[in-house]
Amino acid sequence: MYDLLIKNARVVTADEVIAAAVAVKDGKVAAVLAGETPVPARQVLDLTGKYLLPGVIDCHVHFNEPGYTWREEFAQGSRAAAAGGVTTVIDMPMQNRPPVIDQEVFVRKAELLQGKSAIDYGFWGALVKTNLDKLIGLQEAGALAFKCFMCNPGQDYTALDIAEIEQVLVTLREFGGLAGFHCEDHDMIERLQTASLAAGKTGRRDYLAARPVEAELKAVNDIIALLDKTEGRAHICHVSHPAVAEAIRQAKIKGLDITAETCVHYLLFTGEDLVNEGPRFKCSPPLRTAADREKLWDYVLDGTLDCICSDHSPCTPEEKAEASETGTFGAWGGISGVQTSLQTFWDLAVNQKGADPSLVARVMSLNPAAIFGLYGVKGAVIPGRDADFTVIDPQRNWEITADELLYKHKFSAFTGLSGTGAPVMTIVRGQVVMENCRLRDEGTGQLVRRCREE
Ligand SMILES: [Zn+2]
Question: Per the similarity annotation, which family is this (predicted)?
Fold first, then answer.
């Protein structure tokens, strides 16, 4: 007797969509059954007309707990994620007080968050100037990757210079650790921003001009050169521009161990949205031109950009406002998107670009699972894996309004968008945590740790 039988589903795999039933026992996929095989189960779900994806993994979110919970916290962030069809998030180590710099902080954060999350969650570890000798301990505690900044990361965190990054890549290689980089060249950005502010140029276009693609490209090329030298491994966070993606494509062709992500906002919005609408559209790297946005899609399609994530980075309305002295430069740079990434990406990929739904499964589940060490347990609808599923109704029309957002602060660049195809059910280890926008959970999400590479 199975615990759950999901029948009449269009099961989305890494390369195709198959008609099948999925049986679940003890929170795991027990069988994927073709055809009309009658099997006994305690609960039966009929998904006629709907897609069953392996549970969506958002590999880059900032839920800000502990320490910055006036912006977001796990209880709210994870419920927003569940409402958006996400079954696992990987939470960033900064905008935490303290940042997750060692094993002790990691364990404290894990204890603090127990019972709070609606969905499963993993942690990035910090990678700052002072904790290079703590990385192996963090990895052993369960950190899925280490976040490193090449430009000024703001308070409570430090950026690394090129010599330090080289050392880190060598160190991480010894125990199979993965560093993820925020790539914008520190010196170039500091120079441009300082000059812009000194000249009283504090507007929206000035901000865009002070964070040019050249800064992102230089930083990525520096990482690529170091990978070549050290035979290390790197993940490039939030690629915003096709020229950067092209550099990564070339590095992959060369055989370097590099992966990359982009965010839905780089595929949907442009710098003109920031200019016209204001800081709701401010992020870093910044939004680029319409032509860049269109070209970036090619690199999603060809697999250069392995993962699509939200980089959910909320703040208060006051923090998001332009400042009196520093204008747009003083507004918080970050976009809240964990609840709306899947539906907006689905509509773009499947409806507008005509991509196969398997693309969504690859970039939002399989690839993040593989890169962040979860592929033994998550990322695919195959026997033995966690029964994490995202159910999509391809006919469901949606319009994103502020009042349906479950974030602590109900504003986002995504409000006002409309489309078709949305998550209608989120299942984590066999438990339905969201059905038709209603959340059923009691904080049953669990911490996931890095598992052995396959
Ligand atoms: Zn981020």
Answer: Belongs to the metallo-dependent hydrolases superfamily. Hydantoinase/dihydropyrimidinase family.
Mean pLDDT of 416-423: 98
- Please report the ipTM that was assigned to this predicted complex: 0.98
CA of 93 to the centre of ligand 1 (A): 10
Return the CATH superfamily for domain 56-371: Metal-dependent hydrolases (3.20.20.140)
**Residue 24 near residue 430, CB atoms below 8 Å:** yes
What's the pLDDT at 452?
Answer: 56
Ligand 1 centre to CA of 150 (Å) is 13
Closest CA to 49 of 8, 109, 81: 8
Domain residue ranges of the chain, discontinuous segments joined by + = 2-52+385-405+416-439, 56-371
Kindly give the distance from the C-alpha atom of residue 158 to the centroid of ligand 1, in angstroms, as a whole number. Answer: 14
Domains 2-52+385-405+416-439 and 56-371 alike in fold? no
Q: How far is the CA of 187 from the centre of ligand 1 (A)?
A: 20
For strands 307-309 and 257-263, give the pairing.
parallel
The CA-based dihedral angle spanning residues 303, 305, 306, 311, taken in that order and rounded to the nearest 10 degrees: -160
Strand pairing category for 418-428 and 389-399: antiparallel
Instruction: Report the distance separating Cα 317 and Cα 319, nearest Å.
Output: 5
Q: What is the mean pLDDT of residues 253-268?
A: 98
- How far away, in angstroms, is 71 Cα from ligand 1 center? 14
Q: How far is the CA of 436 from the centre of ligand 1 (A)?
A: 29
Which residues lie at CB < 5 A from ion ligand 1? 311
92 CA → ligand 1 middle, Å: 7
**DSSP for residue 142:** T
Please give the Cα distance from 96 to 70 (Å, whole number): 12
**What is the homologous superfamily of the domain 2-52+385-405+416-439 according to CATH?**
Urease, subunit C, domain 1 (2.30.40.10)
Round to whole Å and give the CA distance between 46 and 185: 51
Phi/psi of residue 148, nearest 5 degrees: -125, 135
Average pLDDT for the chain: 96
Ligand 1 geometric centre to CA of 264 (Å): 13
Task: Round to the nearest angstrom and report the end-to-end CA distance of the chain.
Answer: 30
